[in-house]
Design a protein that fits this description.
Four copies of one chain form a homotetramer. The first copy, chain A, is α+β, with helices and mostly antiparallel strands. The first copy, chain A, has a single domain, classed as Chorismate synthase AroC (Chorismate synthase, AroC fold), CATH 3.60.150.10. In chain A, 27% of the residues lie in helices and 22% in strands. In chain A, the strands form six sheets. The first copy, chain A, has a five-stranded antiparallel sheet with strand order 1-2-3-7-4, with helices on one face. A five-stranded antiparallel sheet of chain A has the order 9-8-10-16-11. In chain A, strands 5-6 form a two-stranded antiparallel ribbon. Chain A is globular, with a radius of gyration of 21 Å. At the C-D interface, strand 1, helix 2, helix 6, strand 11 and helix 7 of C face strand 1, helix 2, helix 6, strand 11 and helix 7 of D.
């Protein structure tokens, strides 16, 4: 188990779907920051299920409580405990699932690793685990915004084969993103995506997608070569999310087809700073931020739990037909948007503080 | 700076292009392992420049010396110091480069971060930095092979738009990979790739590519949720390499277009173990190895240093035309093959030891 | 801030005297362990104030809740969240203390470090912070006991100049320790100590003391040279406790006066294992456990907060006479006994798991 | 194995008595510092054996080479590799010692831990391991001195029962310390100590002692509660040294006998800063530096290897009489002086950088 991330702004998360609750401890938050539950609740609300007919109808209020580290509305520099109670604290009764590992789910590997697993829907592999990350990320984002003017905006750039038309990373805003249920800031594409999700839902199936993210106003100099490069830590953070299968920054996989003469970003003076004409680098050179916007994309596979019957095998290897009960998200990517933003904030603030040592 | 990686098998690298040498300290290597320089030299030889007309003709012997941690051919369980001397220890004289940051290179960001940078070709952002990783990775790989029978094989699956036909990850071997200069185990594709590299070389340009990698015989249970998931640590390791822009595991970005009913990997008994019929997961479920082969791909951008003149700006923002001196690799991906394997080995062994605690 | 300890069994604590509560997250607890709040409550009860007329009469129930990581009475291998609610969650109103840093207390240094400090009695420097440690330590101790038969017993060996007569570390038990209010297992010494504490209490003063601790049945081989040696980690753990000023193991400071010929512990066969005739080493050689009992002592200074008026200065440097309100512990060492045991357990289990990798 | 120390200024040491050499990698050294081998050699010379008739006559030049991280006399911000070659690289031939673990030495525990041990005199448990620490500490000390004016001075305050008269920690200097062979800055005491060492040497015996250390000009605010408190990290660092058995800060063990009214250090304005009238705290309150001098003491046991015959047992438990060959240091404390200073510097700089984040 390694549920801690970060060197100077360090987050330790805890909690399963069942049990008393989920949350995080944030160690290393600067002192003297104005902070209340309201600063955190916004991103939790964007993350929670039941926001539209596109997601699971499970209603969870997911109200956060600050346990420590804040007095009279100001952070003390001491660890901030964060807790969200679970609505249903009883151990799960998943019946068939006890005997049959769900295909493409972590039931099998948790059992192999720990010799035991949560009876409930996924334990720590459940999306509910991300609550602690989002709560901590909201604090990180507040500091980044107040101290450096950082803006982090993620959006859905594809669902299945439905792709968004080009989004301008220099201007895209959370208001634009939240204007559509699918969180794609391009309305016509959003409508096609939503139609696709409803179709998939009717078919008791699921579908994957891609979340794009831009981080603006990052000064040059963040990132710690060679193993904690900015892009390396972003990649770790994103691949640590449930259901992710890929990460690319800047030109990514497509850029491998270009020549150096096409791909190189020439330097040019931009106001006070030296910038680049193009941004194939995605804002990172040699693992260190360049001052250009950081641009990356995260691939999410289709949700593993589907209502259709599946031919598979139980833990003993006996062939069985499995049919998942209940209703599940047919597509996680709209809800993944604030989660991706939160992970980006956690990575960026930690590297910002590590660079601040050199100030 | 963060030049250490790993929790129980911990590697700390050091060294620039100039100075006395480059190397690594490996802390946590199990005691009683047979080890000599010969176990390490093989992968260093596959990594070094000058192996064919496709790479830079710089000849560097890159002979490794074991400084400590081994006595009478056996590891002591104490830190293993590894050193490769630099041939040329004089500080570089790069003339124009002192004033002009090379486009898409780390000159600018190192200067922004540290307020100073190596006069030499790249300092820690140079490919030479990977020598310490490869030396340490060779030790990790030996342990993985001897204790678990792990096989790690990487190959070039594309250069520019030239793609390999399908390679069978269950059987591909290093001998097949090394049979072509481009390290693509499919001969006709390899020839097209090599022709492309020569064309690019003649044009004083460069080109990117993709390295694929398979890790076989990994038992189920490796990977530490939630932040040190196996795929998350692989992603960090690969994005920490120079010139990488993307990482995907299993179905990756393409898999986002599938439905859950297409993408899910049904379970099936395979001899002694429960396996899966397909392997869209790429051998990892919930961040933990499933027992199926681990399959991932790494995107490398075209080399930034090219011989063609480039319009750019100097550090003061003044427009200049830059023309790189000397000869540089037009394409790094063939040499990246052993580097990718080494990083995979470092990640896998560390997680293997962390799982061993539970044994 | 660094409120995390341990590499494989990792504890992150949080919480101040005021606020919602105090607690810890334990990451890396082995799966499949029987665990309930009852396993933890015992040591918390031994730690809490109000146990006798020797300590502060503040009554705090300090009931622990397990937030996560346990289902159906078994640990899941996932992080265990632990929470003890504070009785009084209002920010403190300490009046004079806002302007005047208490002598020999952390008011001044917290203000210097963070630019802010908890209005309440000490914030993270308060003894209340140790609740998370004791809760986590109780879990560690259970594992040590069940897997290796480890016994950890601490006792009060001196209060002020009142010293205990010799206690046999091979046999001393917690029942013997708890048989006296002062937690000194030697009844006549205990009575003198208790008389001294009452005298000090009447004088509105305080007094220091020494806690001794033995850890039995530790197999040879625990401890990670060179920086995480067993004695080095114990020293860090003990000096991280409030009010501690010294640590010694085995012969300690007195042993510096001996000759090697007097101090050396000759080897001798003891049943199945090679042991030593004497144990001046205190059970640790070269930073690694030898199989002999681990013996160490921890020095606690007199409590800083006293009822007597004190001549000191306020934050601006102006001379003032300070008189602490309320009633405070005149002597912390009896309550420190379970805290010392808990820290020992946290250190030992982490090193046990790190050694298990080599098994 | 854990041969790394520090969070932001991180040192990883390597090397045994035999093998190619010993050294360290320093990761996180600030960029732009003037640094050459000469800055490091001074403390290595103070540490090396053969400086007087009081120590072992083994002559080892112990010349350090900087392998990386420095160009044109300036640090690059990249890892600094440091190497000292061993004079004798052959595996040792210790004859009898192969069969018989030396009493109070780490032969037995290394064998128990690793299942193997260096044939040579102690491997990583040898005093030679401290070379990497001293080399790295010299760099840390230079930064502390240049950026904050920090002065670190250690001295021998007792050998056996010979104690120094009071030394003024506000003024004691390295020149005074080095003026006597025993490194006790009080000449009459030094002479008694030296006579004792010669007497012990003649008796083929050894003797322990205490090293005191003062760190001046440390600003208030260094130290990271709760586990990386300044005194906790100093304690870990000192107990990680070979042959140490105790650590105390400020009033230490003696202070446990005082009343709070005697022990408390009242505040008083001192020039620009708020200081304390007395310094029983030893410069640390709540684990954070107060601005007063940091004062601590380290207990060293008598050297285990003595020339006298000893009754002990071999690895199989058979009683034997052991007689150590060769000549060994009868007393390590004079040579321990620069080692203690180096460890203090490593701890202080790391905490200084961690506090700088808040600047």
């Amino acid at each position: 188990m390694s549920s801690s991330l970060g060197t100077l702004f360090r987050v330790s998360t805890f909690g399963e779907s069942h049990g008393v609750g989920v949350g995080a401890v944030v160690d290393g938050c600067p002192a003297g920051l104005h902070l209340s539950e309201a600063d955190i609740q916004g991103q939790l609300d964007r993350r929670r299920p039941g926001q539209s007919d596109l997601t699971t109808p499970r209603e969870e209020a997911d109200q956060v409580t600050i346990l420590s580290g804040v007095e009279n509305g100001l952070t003390l520099g001491t660890p901030i405990g964060l807790l969200v109670h679970n609505k249903d604290q009883r151990p799960g009764d998943y019946g068939e699932m006890d005997q049959v590992p769900r295909p493409s789910h972590a039931d099998f590997t948790y059992q192999a690793k720990y010799g035991i697993r949560a009876s409930s829907g996924g334990g720590r592999s459940s999306a509910r685990e991300t609550i602690g990350r989002v709560a901590a990320g909201a604090i990180a984002e507040k500091i980044l915004r107040e101290e450096w003017g950082v803006e982090i905006v993620a959006w859905v750039s594809s669902i299945g084969s439905e792709q968004s038309s080009d989004i301008d990373p220099e201007t895209v805003s959370r208001a634009q993103v939240d204007a559509t249920l699918s969180r794609c800031p391009d309305q016509p594409s959003a409508e096609r995506m939503e139609a696709l999700v409803r179709e998939v839902l009717d078919a008791k199936d699921s579908v994957g997608g891609i979340v794009s993210c831009v981080c603006r106003n990052i000064p040059a100099g963040w990132g710690e070569p060679v193993f904690d490069k900015l892009d390396a830590k972003l990649a770790q953070a994103m691949l640590s999310l449930p259901a992710t299968k890929g990460f690319e920054i800047g030109s990514g996989f497509a850029g491998t087809q270009l020549r150096g003469s096409q791909h190189n970003d020439p330097f040019v003076q931009k106001g006070e700073r030296l910038g680049t004409v193009t941004n194939n680098a995605g804002g990172v050179l040699g693992g260190i931020s360049s001052g250009e916007p950081i641009l990356f994309r995260v691939a999410f596979k289709p949700v593993a739990t589907i209502g259709q019957p599946q031919q598979t095998a139980d833990f003993s290897g006996k062939p069985v037909t499995m049919e998942a009960k209940g209703r599940h998200d047919p597509c996680v990517v709209p809800r993944a948007v604030p989660i991706v933003e939160s992970m980006a904030a956690l990575v960026l603030l930690d590297l910002a503080l590590r660079q601040k040592v050199r100030g």
